[in-house]
Description:
The chain has about 450 residues and is an alpha/beta fold. It has 2 domains: about 5-225, Spore Coat Polysaccharide Biosynthesis Protein SpsA, Chain A (Alpha-Beta Complex); about 255-440, UDP N-Acetylglucosamine Acyltransferase, domain 1 (3 Solenoid), CATH 2.160.10.10. Helix content is about 20%, strand content about 30%. It is built from 9 helices and 41 strands. The longest helix has 21 residues, at about 230-250. The chain binds uridine-diphosphate-N-acetylglucosamine (UD1) and calcium ion (CA). Uridine-diphosphate-N-acetylglucosamine binds near residues 75, 81, 84, 174 and 201.
Amino acid sequence: MTLSNTTAIILAAGSGTRMKSSKPKVIHEVLGKPLIRWVVDTARQAGVEQIICVLGHKRNVVEPFVEADTTVVIQNEQKGTADAVAVCRGAVSSSAKSVLVLNGDCPLITPKTLNDLVEAREASNAGVAVLTMEAPDPHGYGRIVRDAGGMVERIVEQKDCDELQDAITECNSGFYCFDASMLFDALEQVGSNNSQNEFYLTDVVEIARANGRATIGVKAEDVNECLGVNTRIQLAEATKILQLRINHAHMLDGVTIIDPHQAWIGPDVVLENDIEIWPQTFLAGNTHIGEGTVIGYNSRMFDTDVGAQCNISETVAIEAVIEDGCTCGPRAYLRPGAHLCKGAKVGTHVEIKKSVVGPGSKVPHLSYIGDATIGEDVNIGAGTITCNYDGTNKHATIIGDKTFIGSDTMLVAPVTVGSDVVVGAGSVITDDVPDGALALGRAQQLNKEGYTQSHKPKE
Ligand code: UD1
Ligand code: CA
């Protein structure tokens, strides 16, 4: 899809009072992604030429989420939706034919609907195309008043409705496409003579008509797309709808999801064929999972790359890489920089941080591995720990290939253990170990024969 010559203005300057939050509303997350990012990314997928975000309330907190790929315009005082668009006048590209106005708190809108709205306006050369909806509960929305010819005559806010208008069920979704050449002049004519003393963007409809322009209403096929998030209940509703929208698409694409209500998959997650997702699993950010891999129960992954034919259960992974054929969990914790090479195994109650576990190597039980590089076919015995932190600095542990580290070994970094090494269980390894050696770093066992007998109390 491409909407060249279209600018999208995303309104996000309001405070979102009804969220009762110290965070601005638009950075509350749905499936691991802030509300405003959903809208920005949808506009981007629709192929618009330019995206402008209007920020105001707590702009410093919102800006980091959008400044990299959109133009940020500041509305200092929230005087209404017309004012929020008017402040963008100087920022809109001179090549823009259409201006889309989107709400930063409506994460369900799709690229197709935005395309249809722009196409409908351009095809009819209307001054305004309004996306409308048949709201199941119209209370709180602006009402669409149509004229005898079916054009939108005006939009009346709930608080300004008379009894007849209150009964109208067709509502303003808050999404519009305007003719760029008339929008900003029309905005200068908008007044604030209404019950909220605000400058209403919706008044542009009447101004466009007075200038002889067509004003069309395009009804949304799915009202869910227009759902705005004003409360935390609506945040949960939006999450539920998007969860199922995403999961159903993956299922139709060849992914098994045991219970689609119990898997939360972010919009940017990529899943290959024949994956199985078990319940209570959360996948977010730029996570990618390879073909035939099984993920679940109770797994959480963020920005993690998992290969094909892996078996992952009860694993938390953040910015980790898991290559093909690995086994992970139950109860594995892979922190940023954990890299499991082909066929590696990380077992139960194991934490890995910024470390490479070589091909076919195993860390099966109760270990902490940090700042380490482990070679091929290494076995790390239960309870082994890389002592990587001296209280001030972090140090590296290097282990060669085919080495066997006995259970309960402390590897005091910096330390290098060669290839084909055997380390005796319970060792504290402080010095480097050469290839092929046996390393024992523990007190020698002492047996005192007859001890029990000689210590028996005299009768
Ligand atoms: C608006 C529409 C209403 C529509 C509804 C759909 C107007 C006058 N009314 O009402 O017809 O049914 O959306 O959800 O437009 N904002 C700013 N700066 C401001 C004011 C608002 O950036 O000065 C932003 C808000 O952060 C929000 C969006 O604009 O993202 C909508 O504003 P809001 O006050 O929520 O409008 P509604 O009363 O919901
Ligand atoms: Ca709103």
